[in-house]
Specification:
Chain B: Keywords: ATP-binding, Nucleotide-binding, Transport. Chain B: It holds the Pfam family ABC_tran. The complex is a heterodimer of chains A (277) and B (332). With 277 residues, chain A is an all-alpha fold. Chain A has a single domain (66-266), classed as MetI-like fold, CATH 1.10.3720. Chain A is built from 13 helices and no strands. Chain B is α+β, with helices and mostly antiparallel strands and 332 residues long. Chain B folds into 2 domains: 4-230, Rossmann fold; 237-331, OB fold (Dihydrolipoamide Acetyltransferase, E2P), CATH 2.40.50. In chain B, 25% of the residues lie in helices and 32% in strands. Chain B contains 8 helices and 19 strands. Chain B has helices at 42-50, 92-102, 107-120, 136-148, 166-183, 194-200, 218-223, 228-233, and strands at residues 4-13, 16-26, 31-35, 57-62, 65-66, 77-80, 154-158, 186-191, 203-208, 211-216, 240-243, 253-256, 261-264, 270-279, 284-289, 295-300, 311-316, 322-324, 330-331. In chain B, helix 2 (92-102) crosses helix 3. Classes of the chains: A mainly alpha (277), B alpha+beta (332). The structure holds adenosine-5'-diphosphate (ADP) and magnesium ion.
């Protein structure tokens, strides 16, 4: 019995390790090549940097050409503010949908979930016209508004499902103790929804951080560029500074990695919360 | 302390009518139990009293004042839920204090009331713990404590014992009865368990399918039920119902409690065979297959034993038999 258990654990770990290796391989290749000379990148792309091939030219280029500190700042501001808005408004509408009986509740829920199936990029032209009309082109606000709209459907869908499981008695106990509906939301429901919020945070944050499309269309100015857009300056039509591209991408991994680590403890609880009670 | 009056309360969820025309008077200091099968609307009625649910029609009066438009927190009530509903992220002390803090009670008063409730319910050593670190019985005591510190006019209990094991249930039942004497409070208690109803109440309200079947003191309901439903619901083991026509009676149904159905080896009104025997120590339940009358239960308080398949005679005590018409109403 114990032997079969160990065999099974071994099999599971082997499968997971294989998957991890496959998933991490591109990241690994980017990171090692960021530290190599141009010749070595093309000569032996899979070789780790050696004393002869080690070269920080890419990082030097990133720090000298273009204002990458500003790009990072833009990316962080856009991502964090959108994330905060998605979580706040997502949780609030999820609470309304799961807690209150009103006419059209189900219909409204379906309408809000529609955005999961229809990509927001289909509306790019209309969005651009809207931003031009409201003078929001080349502002971070434009990006934040679009990303908030993009993140809300999934967040409402997941959070509403999660909030339906929170016991009515608990909320009613709060009402009898004199908590307002806002206090019930912020002080009873939100703390209990933390694992689901972390799940939503991760799923929302990564597409926003990685997005190239909307920064390119809505905010391509030097002052509002995000990291992914900033890295494009090294990709020319005829010459591409691969060292710099790889270095910029390697650096771009760090902030999301840190954010992910912050959320991941909660995330794991979110995934297993239904299974283990 | 407070009295409660319900006038013509009805409640529908969409097209489903859950409560119909409920009138009720609960006196100051009374212990009233709502009892009835699952899904008959007991919790809904209690939630209407608490203000957590709006009635579709009718008025709720506490101490003679109409409170329909008052929020739950302003009705001076406290409620204990079946699932305890303790705030999971707060300590026992904060769980009990939250309501008072919301009402901006002075700190010293809060501390005094929490200490008093903790003493009454032996919660002192648990005050610093969180609900997750408590056993089921302890959680239930905290939930009761949270109600006690509010010093409400009206205590509402929704099946507070149904998540506890049998031994704990008896203890907590005794505890609630003691608490009630100590606080001299008005209490309304919901249960589907007729034993709880009989042991705790001075007034029982029997509900069935959203209507009140009968209101009365426990022994009144036992001795003098108004209809077949109440007769069958109150008392355990359940009352026997026999077809009246088959016994040559005018009534449609004859009801006789197991303790009033005489069992004899020699003579009686009709005969049957013993099909099962339950020895409970002080009493014995004997199940008898009585031909056309069906399976009947007799209850004896001696230690006489009967063999399976033994032939016996049964006689309903004429002084204790109850007669019902075809609609189930009592014939007197
Ligand atoms: N929010 C609701 N929406 C629709 N139906 C409900 C709701 N709450 C209760 N009911 C229905 O009302 C009936 C009575 O419920 P309840 O008062 O909880 O019964 P009890 O507490 O006596 O078991 C049940 O049939 C239940 O399905
Ligand atoms: Mg109920």
């Amino acid at each position: 019995m114990a032997r079969r258990g160990r065999l099974r654990a071994f099999g599971a770990h082997a499968a997971l390790l294989t998957y991890t290796a496959i998933a991490l391989f591109p990241v690994f290749v980017i990171v090692i090549n960021a530290f190599k000379s141009r010749k070595a990148i093309f000569g032996a792309p899979l070789a780790p940097p050696t004393p002869e091939t080690f070269d920080l030219a890419g990082f030097r280029a990133v720090l000298t050409q273009g204002d990458f500190v500003l790009y990072f700042q833009n990316s962080l501001i856009v991502t964090l503010v959108s994330l905060a808005l998605v979580l706040l408004f997502g949780a609030m509408s999820a609470f309304a949908l799961s807690e209150y009986r009103f006419r059209g509740n189900t219909l409204l829920g379906l309408y809000l979930a529609l955005g999961i199936m229809i990509p927001i990029r289909l509306g790019t032209v209309a969005i651009l016209e809207l931003m031009v009309a409201t003078h929001l082109v080349d502002t971070r606000t434009a990006l934040i508004l679009v990303y908030t709209a993009q993140g809300l459907p999934l967040s409402i869908f997941i959070l509403a499902e999660f909030m339906r499981q929170i016991s009515d008695d608990l909320k009613n106990a709060g009402r009898i103790d004199g908590l307002s509906e806002y206090a019930i939301f912020f002080r009873l429901v939100l703390p209990l929804t933390r694992p689901a919020m972390a799940t939503v945070a991760v799923f929302t944050m990564i597409p926003i951080w990685n997005d190239l499309w909307f920064p390119l269309i809505l905010a391509p100015s030097e002052a509002t560029k995000t990291v992914t857009l900033g890295a494009q300056v090294f990709i020319g039509q005829f010459v591409t500074n691969w060292n710099a591209v790889l270095a910029a991408l390697s650096l771009a991994i760090l902030p999301v990695l840190i954010l992910y680590l912050i959320f991941s403890r909660q995330l794991i609880r979110g995934i297993t919360s239904g299974a283990v009670k | 302390m407070g009295s409660l009056t319900l006038r013509g309360i009805s409640k529908s969820f969409g097209a489903t009518e859950v409560l119909r025309d409920i009138d009720l008077e609960v006196h100051d200091g009374g212990f009233t139990v709502f009892v009835g099968p699952s899904g008959c609307g007991k919790s809904t009625l209690l939630r209407i009293v608490a203000g957590l649910e709006e009635p579709s029609a009718g008025d709720v009066l506490i101490e003679g004042e109409r409170v329909n438009d008052r929020a739950p927190a302003d009705r001076e009530i406290a409620m204990v839920f079946q699932s305890y509903a303790l705030y999971p992220h707060l300590t026992v002390r904060d769980n009990m204090a939250l309501g008072l803090r919301q009402a901006r009670t002075p700190k010293a008063t809060i501390e005094a009331r929490v200490a008093e409730a903790a003493r009454m319910l032996s919660l002192e050593p648990l005050l610093g713990r969180r609900p997750a670190e408590l056993s089921g019985g302890q959680r239930q005591r905290v939930a009761i404590g949270r109600a006690v510190v509010r010093t409400p006019k009206l205590f509402l209990f929704d099946e507070p014992l149904s998540n506890l094991d049998a031994a704990l249930r008896v203890n907590t039942r005794v505890e609630i009865a003691r608490l009630r004497r100590e606080l001299r409070a008005t209490m309304i208690y919901v249960t589907h368990d007729q034993t709880e109803a009989m042991t705790l109440a001075d007034q029982i309200v029997v509900l069935n399918a959203g209507r009140i079947e009968q209101i009365g003191a426990p022994m009144e309901l036992y001795r003098d039920p108004a209809n077949i439903f109440v007769a069958g619901f109150i008392g355990s083991p359940r009352m026997n119902f026999l077809d009246g026509a088959r016994l040559g009676l005018q009534a449609a149904t004859l009801g006789i409690r197991p303790e009033h159905l005489r069992l004899d080896r020699v003579a009686g009104e009709f005969e049957g065979r013993v099909s099962h025997v339950e020895h409970l120590g002080g009493e014995t339940n004997i199940f008898v297959q009585a031909g056309a009358h069906g399976l009947l239960t007799a209850r004896r308080f001696d230690e006489e034993s009967f063999a399976l398949d033994e032939r016996v005679w049964l006689t309903p005590d004429p002084a204790r038999r109850l007669l019902f018409d075809a609609e189930g109403r009592r014939l007197r």
